[in-house]
Amino acid sequence: DLQICQHRAPTCCTKKMEESYQAAVRRERAQSIQALNFELKYMIVGHITAFQEAFESLLRFAENRTSSLFETAYRPMAKEAAEPVKELFTDISLYILGAETTVESAVLRFFDSLFPLVYSRLINPGITDLSEDYTECLRLTRQDINPFGHYSKNMVTELSRSLWASRMLSQALSLGIEVINSTEHAALSKECSRALVRMQYCPHCQGLTLIRPCVGYCLNVMRGCLASVAELDAQWREFISTLEYLTSEMAASHELETALAGIWSSINEAVLHAQLNGPQLSATVDKVCGQPKQQEGNLSSASIVPVKEVTGTQTFVMAHTSLNNRRREFISYMKRSRTFYASIAERLCDGDLVMRDSSTCWNGEDVV
């Protein structure tokens, strides 16, 4: 009553054993594919972590640099500016991770929060009544009177270009993990599991427990079983090409590192621009928002002090080098995995599964 391991000679197998063999080959095949996937998945997950650590290092450096700017050059508003600065860099981090936000909204929200502080602490430091209504009026007015000139828009443009590739790379790596995970759970068809039993276990029914499948026979069976997985080959190659493109974009002229390191400079230029245009801004704000309460003798506006480069270059260079090295290592490895899905049958038929160095092997029906 055997359905798979039918043979002319007497056999020691039963139909129940055939069913056990089918369960065994399904389990073994899943484990084999998981083992193949493990190295690839391990490398991708490792690089996702490494990239994220490098991003976070650069973001912390850029945030600290920006905070130092306020503490050294704009001390009257440093304490209140800490929260908007923190929110800006949190938004940038979330954007890189794929959150539903934009660089433009993050940057403009930052400058909306910054303007009331610049206006009341630097341009008109005598203001004593900074009510919620007045603050909100200043926030809304910022969009119309553009106190920071072209610097806020330039910052949006520069960051958008450089962060886009980082965001796409982060999403692409997550997609790669999803693809690999999906192949681990590809169901074997009934015909495939029967073919695998015939290849691996039918010799046992003849007492031939040490005979292994012939190489060509194994390849034919595996290619048939994994045809659906092998169809990923073209898309996987395209995926690797996309990763190459994204990593080269990240290393191009609009580098993430350079853009993040320059945030403090853009903000500094924007604040200086607002200070230089203080009288005109005050006249416009008074018309729109009214005149707030002032201290007696109205303090003169804060003196404008040009700011030199904030220290910390060594930290930046280390993070920059780390990210560049990670990129090179990662793309070099991924290029080598270009044929991963095309060669999956060959990989599964490698090693102990088949007979390579002997003149006798199992061809599905007999020892040859």
Query: Pairing-aware structural class of the strands and helices?
Result: mainly alpha
- What is the assembly state of the chains in this entry? single chain
Total beta strands: 0
Strand content: under 5%
Shape: rod-shaped
Unreliable parts: none
Ends apart, CA distance between termini: 26 Å
Number of helical elements: 15
Brief digest:
One of its GO terms (cellular component) is extracellular region. The protein has 368 residues and is an all-alpha fold. 70% of the residues lie in helices and 0% in strands.
Describe the structure.
Cell surface proteoglycan. Pfam families: Glypican. It is a lipid-anchor; GPI-anchor. Its main location: membrane. It comes from Melospiza melodia. It is a single chain. The protein is mainly α and 368 residues long. The protein has one domain. The protein is built from 15 helices and no strands. Helix 1 (15-73) runs antiparallel to helix 2 and helix 4 packs across helix 13. The longest helix has 59 residues, at 15-73. The chain is rod-shaped.
Entry keywords:
368 residues; mainly alpha
Topology:
Elements: H1 15-73, H2 75-96, H3 103-123, H4 132-145, H5 151-184, H6 190-200, H7 202-205, H8 215-225, H9 227-230, H10 233-250, H11 256-261, H12 263-276, H13 278-289, H14 313-336, H15 344-348
Helix pairs in contact: 1-2, 1-5, 1-6, 1-12, 1-14, 2-3, 3-4, 3-5, 4-13, 5-10, 5-12, 6-8, 10-14
